[in-house]
């Protein structure tokens, strides 16, 4: 069973401290949701875990199955089983969706364990059909000319093809209509197993209507200040964050602009 463990994580961006001691553990079989106002460090957490060079870890540890994630290069983190579905996926001209996915799978499997072409095609066709994706998308350049909904659906396709140990979904629901939201949720729910853990970063309860989390965490001022079950997200949707600020004596929850 995979375990991502974050202890006392402090992260700075251009000399400004954004994360101020995050503690979190995500195990295989669990889905965690992180919610909170804008600018409190949610996307910073995702980027720091995956090794974005803009984010400097100044204190704390991140381990995956006991391995020191912070000592790994970005590609090594992906090969170890971490996956990030980005809020704003990049467009890559000249590389087809299918070629990108096959190269990514082979990089994860390692030399000598590459997926056969026929097995890859069968798996790709199966997952694209499951996500109601147009088969032509396999042959289009990666995210080029894709709508916002197509890009997000494509991120879930990558998730299902790569089968990571731990996935981080950074606002995968932003900009989606209800039909696209249901498709994204369908893909994540299909991945649920003891071999897969998921950390969902979201502003809205609506995604959690379709993906029921085991744990909900609230981030403010660069820390996780409250945790609970699905009912916590429902209360946040109904009442906002003011009751938590009052409970904790927080006057200003903003720590800086998230990237």
TrEMBL record:
Keyword Amino-acid biosynthesis appears in the UniProt entry: no
UniProt-listed Gene3D superfamilies: P-loop containing nucleotide triphosphate hydrolases
The record's gene field reads sufC
Pfam families, alphabetically? ABC_tran
Q: Domain (ABC transporter): give its ranges.
A: 4-246
Q: Does the keyword ATP-binding apply?
A: yes
Q: Family membership, please give it.
A: Belongs to the ABC transporter superfamily. Ycf16 family.
Q: Which NCBIfam families does the record match to this protein?
A: sufC
Which molecular-function annotations from GO does this UniProt entry contain? ATP binding; ATP hydrolysis activity
Matching entries from SMART domains are given as: AAA
Q: What name has this protein been given in UniProt? A: ABC transporter ATP-binding protein
Species per Swiss-Prot/TrEMBL record: Geobacillus subterraneus
What keywords does the record list, in alphabetical order? Answer: ATP-binding, Nucleotide-binding
Which CDD domains does the UniProt record give?
A: ABC_FeS_Assembly
């Amino acid at each position: 069973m995979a375990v991502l463990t974050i202890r006392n994580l402090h992260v700075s961006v251009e000399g400004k401290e954004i994360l101020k001691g995050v503690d979190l553990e995500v195990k295989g079989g669990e889905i965690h949701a992180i919610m909170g106002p804008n600018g409190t460090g949610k996307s910073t957490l995702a980027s720091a875990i995956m090794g974005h060079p803009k984010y400097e870890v100044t204190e704390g540890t991140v381990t995956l199955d006991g391995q020191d994630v912070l000592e790994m290069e970005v590609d090594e983190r992906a090969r170890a089983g971490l996956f990030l579905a980005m809020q704003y996926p990049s467009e890559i001209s000249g590389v087809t969706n299918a070629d990108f996915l096959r190269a990514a799978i082979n990089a994860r499997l390692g030399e000598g364990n590459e997926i056969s072409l026929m097995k890859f095609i069968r798996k790709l066709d199966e997952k694209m059909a499951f996500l109601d994706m147009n088969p032509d998308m396999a042959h289009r350049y990666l995210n080029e000319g894709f709508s916002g909904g197509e890009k997000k659906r494509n991120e879930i396709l990558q998730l299902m093809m790569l089968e990571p140990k731990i996935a981080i979904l950074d606002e995968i629901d932003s900009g989606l209509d209800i039909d696209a939201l249901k498709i994204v949720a369908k893909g994540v729910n299909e991945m649920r197993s003891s071999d897969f853990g998921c950390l969902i970063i979201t502003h809205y309860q609506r995604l959690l209507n379709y993906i029921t989390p085991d744990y909900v965490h609230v981030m403010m001022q660069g820390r996780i200040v409250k945790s609970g079950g699905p009912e916590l997200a429902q209360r946040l949707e109904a009442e906002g964050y003011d009751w938590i600020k009052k409970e904790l004596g927080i006057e200003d929850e903003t720590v800086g602009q998230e990237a």
